[in-house]
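Quiz preparation item.
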């Protein structure tokens, strides 16, 4: 769309505006192919059964180091900063896991899960209404809480309910994942919103970003609805690789 009407996109540096179509294509391919190859290495080895997810992740890390070395970006400072960043992220995720697990254990041990299950399963409604309620809860929490915390709190409660309603576990899990993906875009605390603010021209306010993100949130919701209506969009590829 921006290629047809460049005024719809953000301004670009003057030196990039003078590039020919062939030069732009070459630049895009150089930027696209290495990370795509890395993704193919990780996901391809998992799907082919050659490596476990942990082994594939290790190969991905080695591949990233090789790419940095080829691009002459692999320095001692980069390695140190990468290790520090990884350590911080890992510690944050582990603390969320500990807190979420603690909450789940306490909540379920005092019968909270049974109360929620009895409440939802006791409703004389279509099972998809119960599914809509669960998805709405995840969507609402995504506006304010980190995705990992939502995952740890809601999944132990909602999964048994989904099983009692005879929903496909893979299908239900992917619905939750797509819903959690939307949480990166929903105001007021969506991570992607703050990233957009950081890279947007100074003239764009946070309110402008909130308004601009709404069509993409609607697309995410529409995609979620399509996955509910057509479960094969989720189950077809796994069944092709791994069977029923």
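Solution:
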């Amino acid at each position: 769309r921006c290629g047809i009407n460049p005024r719809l996109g953000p301004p670009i540096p003057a030196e990039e505006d003078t590039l020919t179509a062939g030069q732009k294509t070459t630049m895009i391919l150089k930027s696209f192919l290495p990370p795509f190859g890395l993704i193919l290495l990780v996901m391809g080895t998992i799907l082919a059964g050659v490596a476990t997810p942990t082994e594939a992740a290790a190969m991905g890390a080695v591949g990233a180091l090789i790419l940095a070395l080829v691009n002459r970006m692999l320095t001692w400072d980069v390695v140190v900063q990468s290790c520090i960043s990884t350590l911080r992220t890992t510690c944050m995720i582990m603390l969320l896991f500990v807190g979420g697990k603690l909450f789940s254990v306490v909540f379920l041990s005092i019968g909270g899960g049974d109360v929620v299950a009895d409440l939802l399963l006791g409703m004389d409604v279509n099972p998809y209404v119960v599914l809509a309620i669960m998805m709405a809860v995840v969507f609402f929490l995504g506006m304010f809480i980190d995705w990992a915390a939502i995952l740890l709190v809601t999944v132990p409660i909602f999964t048994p309910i989904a099983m009692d309603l005879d929903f496909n576990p893979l299908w239900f899990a992917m619905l939750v994942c797509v819903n959690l993906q939307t949480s990166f875009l929903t105001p007021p605390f969506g991570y992607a919103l703050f990233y957009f603010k950081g890279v947007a021209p100074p003239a764009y306010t946070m309110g402008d970003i909130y308004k601009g993100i709404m069509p993409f949130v609607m697309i995410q919701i529409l995609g979620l609805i399509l996955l509910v209506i057509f479960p094969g969009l989720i189950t077809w590829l796994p069944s092709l690789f791994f069977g029923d």
